[in-house]
Amino acid sequence: MKVISIATSFVAFLASKASGAHVQKLPECSLKQSSPCTCAAPSYYFETVALGVIGATIGDVRALINDFYDTYWYAHETPIKKIGPDNTVGSIRTFREPTGDLSEQLMVYKIGQDGSFTQRYQQYIDPAAAANGTKPTFYVTMKGKNVFQNETLVAIETYGCWTGPAPTLAESHEQGIQNAIDILRAGGKLTGITPTNFISTSFPKAAPF
C-alpha cells in the first residue's frame, strides 16, 4: 500500500505538469526548491523516481547502499577522487566517465531512529564549482524505509535541470536496486519477500524541441 500510495501521488503530480500549470512563475530549481521548478535554457526540467522493495532488514540494506564513497554496489564503479570525510555533508566524490569527469557533492545525509535513511547529492561537471554552491544543476535522493521486519522500501529520485537528450535514469536506478538485491541474496541477507517488479517513471520522456 505504501508503494502504491507513493506512486499514485507521483503520477498525479506528473498529470498536473501535463496541464502546463507548472511553467508559470515558478522559482528556479535549487536544493531548497525540490519541485516543481524551472530551468534556464538550454536546459530543461527533468525528474525520475524508481521504487523497489528489498526483502532484507533496513539495517542490512543501509549498510550496503548508504555509504557515500562506497558505490560499487550500484554500477560496479568507484570514485577516482574523494574530498572530505565519508558520509559528511559537503564532501565530494568524482567519477571518470566517457564524456569527462563527473563530481557529486553530498548535500543531505540523515539516519532516523527507526533506521530509515536519506541521502541527497548534487551533480557537477567541475569539482571546483561544487564548493561554491551557486549554480545547482541536478539532484539525486536515495531513501530507505522499513516496511516490515524483513522488507525495506528503497526509492531513488531525481530532479533538476538537464541538457541534451533525456536520459534513461529510471532504468539505471532500477538496475542499481536489482544489483543491491543480488548482493544481499549472495550474502544470505535476503530473508524477506522481494517482489520481482519495480515502479518507476520519468518526466519528460524526451527532451523538449
Structure in words:
By secondary structure, the protein is α+β, with helices and mostly antiparallel strands. The protein is 24% helix and 33% strand. It is built from five helices and eight strands. The chain has helices spanning 2-18, 58-65, 72-75, 127-130, 169-186; strands spanning 44-54, 81-83, 92-97, 100-111, 117-124, 138-148, 151-162, 199-203. An eight-stranded antiparallel β-sheet has the order 2-3-4-5-6-7-1-8, with helices on both faces. 29% of the residues are buried. Residues 1-23 have low confidence and may be disordered.
Strand order of the largest sheet: 2-3-4-5-6-7-1-8
The CATH first-level class comes to Alpha Beta
- Provide the structure class: alpha+beta
Count of DSSP strands:
8
Average residue-wise pLDDT: 84
Name of the CATH architecture: 2-Layer Sandwich
Helical content stands at 10-25%
